[in-house]
Inverse folding.
């Protein structure tokens, strides 16, 4: 069995080869991701989220888009009855496409016929709105609407098309070459004609078409699409997009060419979707300089512009990255979609390079951004993911669309509702991010209870069963169910925080009990026998984590992490007479494990008397010494906060 | 001589009585402000700013508004040639009106005929655009434009009218009842018909009409205007304004009625203009509950939502107040206009109550927000006034409009250019905020070299000469030039920070040398004789100022103040090999006076090594102990920063 979507295969071989090889990204890099059919989650943290996504979120998104007329926008275009009164923002089509992508992955994962039926019913309505020349958009180009491509800065036409292509990529990799794929092919051909050589010299204000074209090019073996993606990338960064009010060209990364930039800036989702497309193009065209540029941007942006949660985007104003070290807890934007986009970039860089640091950031972002957004019932979401909440969020009615992206309370839907469908498509394909293959090397990238049946690139198959309660517990037990009769390599990721991790390998020649393994990849190479068991033991005692001294907003405060989980202190866990703002952590007492969080020792400051009618500053150092008895308070995983009614919250607790 | 604009005077008496009684606010409260003609600044800090305003800023604003077509918008309406292609935002008319207000005050101050000619030439163009029924707006209501009052949330029509009325108030108080006043009267009558009893039940998304109507009502003795202002105030806070994208009703204070609110929230300029109007209405209608509500909001907002500079507005996204204690230095918005608006509110509360705390906040805001905005040449401005700049601002070309309101570099003009004209009108009338009169009590509110000839409310006149180098020096010498032959009271404000202040009163019966005076009002009551000299000595040694422990973003850092000036550390004052982010202040060494700033002892952290590809957090407390020799570095007044080329800057310096 060969990977049907590598760049070197002939076009005719590239279409669907079954869910085993269906995966979010088909790289030409060092590693390939496993197919959605190669891994089956067996409950656990992500299995539960995936089930809720399947059971609740997919239908929830469809209901809302029906209710608001975002799906009917396609019907009205098909019927010739649309106009300037169309409901929804310019980019609402993209939400329908992201839902299609989620449905495609979900069907690929389960084979559920009802999911396929939903998918096909939606595709029929989308397809009916496509113009004869392949153009497909419900907001532009019809009677009563602005002409096509008259607002490249804000119109989001190519952005929507990019999401259409990503949906088709998911479909071609999970269901075969059917109607949506043809719709996407015609849309992509239209884009190539319109914006290709001799066509419009334009780019879209919101990157996305680049990654969509590059991936569709791979999925269909169509180098024209890769070339068009490359063209869009190279055009960007020369200040040609008309400005949008109050924001400079860095807002949409039109200030510096991708290959010259040193750091991510401007709108975080835009920066990250663009970077994802850049990696795809770099890998497919052998452009090492471009790949190195994205790695450089990743490194600097992660080291200076990324939250402890993996969240990206410090600013509400432009939903954007801040300056270096600008990481306020309270106004952290950390848009859920930026978390998804960060995963897209890191995944591509992991596949291109095999470097475990990319997988580390993915894990951090999965647990603390992606998993934080959906409420436990899958029917409400965080859009922004701040690390501190000073005022409890107001209750949001279940049937009310919410304009807020402020955090504090999850909402069923938003005015700009990009996050729910982004969560849905990510969760539906989550297991495909759990492992990679390169030659005869199988790498377990994310730790989750699962069964894997993985085709090796050079032939043969490895079957593994992973048992773990991770992240609640650090023990990851891997049993070999099947393996070829020759030496191969099995690698397990040891996260960077896992100092003191050990790997026990039953039946190894030098078996002297578990051996220490350093962060990175713990590797075993040998001829495996069914029944072999490996046990990775990751230390998951709660630990204190301190901010870099250059992060001004967090000075004098500390966070507690446990395994991959960032913990937080919620006001509902404090005694009634203690205000969250008055709590100071005693770092001389090590945090102790408590349920799936921790217990920490804190002191409580005397409430400060009402001020004298002046700004809150005084002539002497403030009395910041607790005056009451120390108490132990529980911290809970950040991803679970705000599930127990309105509360205030903080990840970073000031130090006593 | 009586105050011609008190609420009890008959209408016919209320028109212009000469510049002696021309003042920004004519209250019915406990005190009155001095007239622009009652005080003449004699150089000094504010005299210099006022001269630059007169010499450069007024013409600069007019040039820009001519260049951009904002003045010509009126000509096009008059000519019937306007349409949907009108340049400028919906509110650009208001900039013309604020310039008219500034010109009126400037003419009142100096009697300069060329200023009067500029004023009259502009008035002619404005007047020609007024519709027959009094409506006056260049953006709505004409061919090719949206109908009148079809976008109350964002259209700014009543906001513009409010500024027109304020300009007319300045004129009626300084130049008499001429053409602009008639234009304003017709516009106000139109508003009363359109939005009065039985009319439209609407309010404007941006408050301003309230304060404009209330003040015009006083100036013209027209209670209908006060009543309409009251009506707008009472209508607000019931969620009737259509929402604007992504922002809730608190953005324009339509969430809670003014008299019920506990704190300012949402867009800072809107909140403060509304509060100013509320004080005017409360005072004029004897509504003590409403006055108490604004005092309550002032108190809580100042104590929890106000920067050390007096700046208000923590958030860029909505140009708004943040939550309590949300006072980040780096993303402080502190819009210049919010500083002006804060002065408007505090001035009204000072006049209504006589409480020195309102004057203290005005001083803080004057020196550290209003004076910070204009560049020393009066031809470029800060819009936002952050207290920390991590990346040096890019140079802005002198002839380029700038979309940014980010701070870091002053710009000649902005896309939304509300600040330059707001600075201009405030500086042109600054001396009128320097003193108040109540009965036979004269209060020196702001300390500046000046000559005052003040009419007492109960007859007679006091003439004083103030000599001082304040704020560079704390000595304020007041000489009596003329006084009635009976006991009167002279009060000098002792700022809240002036612990250890003394007042020396030559020739007082108990003259035993200077006596200590506590913050508040230092009072002398007696029969004064020409030649009497009083010397207020305010300590202006540099002092450390610490943030409240609840201000998370400033924890572990300290500021240095000197007199009313907030100081800052600019990168251009550091050795070349020292990064601002690595500087730690040694608070065990008292800051020493140095030029008009201070010298402080600092240590320098070893530069932190490049991170390992992870977010900037570590398992142990960061090494934050300086490893080099201590050095002394100068701090400069915050209002002067960014005058020496691009720099980084911080007001709050982390403590060693």
């Amino acid at each position: 069995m060969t990977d049907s979507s590598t760049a070197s295969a002939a076009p005719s071989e590239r279409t669907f080869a079954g869910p085993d090889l269906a995966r979010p990204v088909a790289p030409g890099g060092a590693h390939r991701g496993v197919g959605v059919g190669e891994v089956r989650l067996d409950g656990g943290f992500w299995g539960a989220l995936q089930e809720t996504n399947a059971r609740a979120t997919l239908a929830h998104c469809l209901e809302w888009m029906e209710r608001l007329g975002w799906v009917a926008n396609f019907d009205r275009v098909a019927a010739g009855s649309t106009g300037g009164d169309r409901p929804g923002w310019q980019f609402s089509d993209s939400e329908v496409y992201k839902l299609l992508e989620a449905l495609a992955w979900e069907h690929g994962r389960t084979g559920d016929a009802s999911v396929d039926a939903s998918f096909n019913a939606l595709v029929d309505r989308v397809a009916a709105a496509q113009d004869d020349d392949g153009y497909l958009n419900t907001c532009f180009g019809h009677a009563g609407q602005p002409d096509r491509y008259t607002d490249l800065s804000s119109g989001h036409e190519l952005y929507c098309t990019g999401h259409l292509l990503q949906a088709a990529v998911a479909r071609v990799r999970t269901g075969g070459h059917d109607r949506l794929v043809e719709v996407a092919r015609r849309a992509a051909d239209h884009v190539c004609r319109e914006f290709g050589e001799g066509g419009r010299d334009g780019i879209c204000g919101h990157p996305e078409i680049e990654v969509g074209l590059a991936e569709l090019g791979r999925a269909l073996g169509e180098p024209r699409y890769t070339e068009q993606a490359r063209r869009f990338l190279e055009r960007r960064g020369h200040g040609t997009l008309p400005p949008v009010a109050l924001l400079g060209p860095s807002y949409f990364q039109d200030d510096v060419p991708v290959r010259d930039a040193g750091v991510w800036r401007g709108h975080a989702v835009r920066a990250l979707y663009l970077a994802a497309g850049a990696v795809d193009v770099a890998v497919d065209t052998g452009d090492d300089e471009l790949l190195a540029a994205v790695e450089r941007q990743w490194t600097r942006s992660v080291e200076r512009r990324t939250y402890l949660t993996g969240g990206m985007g410090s600013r509400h104003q432009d939903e954007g990255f801040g300056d270096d070290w600008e990481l306020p807890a309270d106004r952290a934007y950390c848009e859920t979609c930026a978390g998804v986009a960060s995963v897209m970039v890191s995944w591509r860089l992991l596949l291109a390079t095999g470097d475990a640091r990319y997988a580390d950031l993915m894990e951090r972002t999965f647990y603390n951004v992606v998993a934080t957004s959906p409420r436990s019932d899958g029917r409400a979401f965080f859009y922004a993911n701040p690390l501190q909440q000073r005022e409890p969020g107001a209750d949001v009615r279940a049937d009310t669309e919410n304009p807020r992206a402020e955090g504090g309370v999850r909402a069923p839907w938003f005015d700009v509702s990009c996050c729910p469908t982004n969560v849905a498509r990510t969760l539906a394909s989550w297991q495909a991010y759990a492992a990679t293959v390169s030659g005869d090397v199988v790498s377990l990238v994310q730790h989750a209870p699962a069964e894997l049946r993985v085709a090796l690139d050079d032939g043969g198959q490895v079957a593994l069963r992973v048992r773990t309660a991770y992240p609640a517990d650090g023990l990851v037990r891997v049993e070999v169910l099947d393996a070829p009769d020759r030496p191969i390599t099995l690698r397990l990721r040891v996260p960077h925080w896992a100092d003191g991790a050990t790997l026990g390998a039953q039946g190894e020649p030098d078996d002297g009990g578990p051996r220490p393994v350093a962060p990175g990849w713990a590797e075993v190479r040998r001829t495996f026998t069914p029944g072999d068991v490996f046990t990775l033991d990751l230390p998951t005692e709660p630990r204190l984590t301190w901010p870099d001294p250059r992060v001004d907003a967090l000075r004098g405060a500390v966070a507690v992490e446990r395994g991959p989980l960032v913990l937080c202190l919620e006001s509902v866990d404090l005694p009634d007479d203690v205000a969250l703002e008055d709590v100071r952590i005693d770092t001389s007492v090590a945090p102790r494990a408590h349920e799936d969080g921790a217990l920490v020792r804190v002191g409580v400051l005397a409430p400060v008397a009402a001020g004298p009618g002046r700004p809150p500053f005084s002539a002497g150092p403030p009395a910041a010494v607790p005056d009451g008895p120390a108490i132990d308070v529980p911290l809970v995983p950040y991803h679970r906060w705000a599930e127990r009614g309105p509360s205030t919250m903080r990840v970073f607790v000031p130090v006593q």
Chain B touches chain A through 79 residues (CB under 8 Å). The first helix of chain B runs from residue 44 to 67. Residues 1-17 of chain B have pLDDT under 50 and may be disordered.
